[in-house]
Specification:
Strand content: 5-15%
Order of helices and strands: HHEHEHEEEEEEEHHHHEEHEH
Strand order of the largest sheet: 1-9-8-7-4-2-3
Distance between the termini: 7 Å
Largest sheet: 7 strands, mixed
Helix content: 25-40%
CATH class of the largest domain: Alpha Beta
CATH architecture of the largest domain: 3-Layer(aba) Sandwich
Amino acid sequence: MTLDNDFVIPSELLPVDGRFGSGPSLVRKEAVVALAEVSETYLGTSHRQDPVRNMVGRLKEGLAQLFSLPDDWEIILGNGGSTLFWDVAAFGLIKNSSQHLVFGEFSSKFAQAVDKAPHLEVLEIIESEPGDAPSLKPSDVDTYALTQNETSTGVSIPLERPSGIPASNALVLVDATSAAGGMMWNPAEVDCYYFAPQKCFGSDGGLWIAICSPAAVSRIEKISSSDRWVPAGLDINTALGNSRKNQTYNTPALSTIFLTVHQVEWMNNNGGLGWAAGRSNNSSSHIYNWAEHHAHAEPFVSKAEIRSPVVATIDLADSINADDVVDICRKNGILDISGYRKLGRNQLRIATFPAIEIEDIRLLTKSLDYVIGRLL
């Protein structure tokens, strides 16, 4: 049954902020107000002058604090987002060969980008079906590539260096685009932790951030000194040199940098990564508990230990059309809860990033109860 366009969810059931998209994500109003307050001295100014360079410095300092980074790690910034960073890594971080964990759309795209790189050897792929997750296997490759949280499916995996493989032999690259800021991680298990800030960090896209161990920096510098041709815009060594000056190679989106700084400092001021990850975990736990006890819904990821704490995927019964639920919710101000398009399931996908209030998550499930009840 599909209801008409006048379907109204009672106001007392509606979230205060109806943004639950998995990226772009909710941007806190306080951050937007703060950006407006500095707009005349910050927006529209040179990214090579102090106002912007100081903001980049604040971002690096804030991330180092948030992630409890060792002093010898470096934070590199570049334009283009995580999708572009896959090409950056193919040119400047993978020496010859790599092993990839593939368990959804985004983890598969990095593998595809590397597979097409003519200067690299044939890659190893360890794949699982959407909703499940594979594990790294010790190999003679020089790079391991995995995704901490697969945004398309709502599967997350622990970050663990392959047994017996030191960083001097192989780097571990982690795509943390939807995980960074909402999930815990240990730098000892990783060499390059990269992400874009439009998810947990409540900012806009157009920027990639790579947090690199000394081993990763050494690899970058060695490849740069070799005879490998690298396009200037994809040269991570150039990005490294600029980041050391608190700059980017070319003009960045200044609003993206500011909003990311505001979110990082908000997290640090409230208790750091443990606090932020705790907010996400509380919200996602509520969603999963709701689905497990609902007659017409269930978590898509059957194994509780790999369910994402930041992107909850919920299958609906065949008797309920997820598109109808999404459409009704959108008309009532509840936005962007549709499942990932290529997965093709009768599914809801709900972000539970740190900026989303737990009370709004509770109200969302009450609204879903109301809508589903009316559709039956």
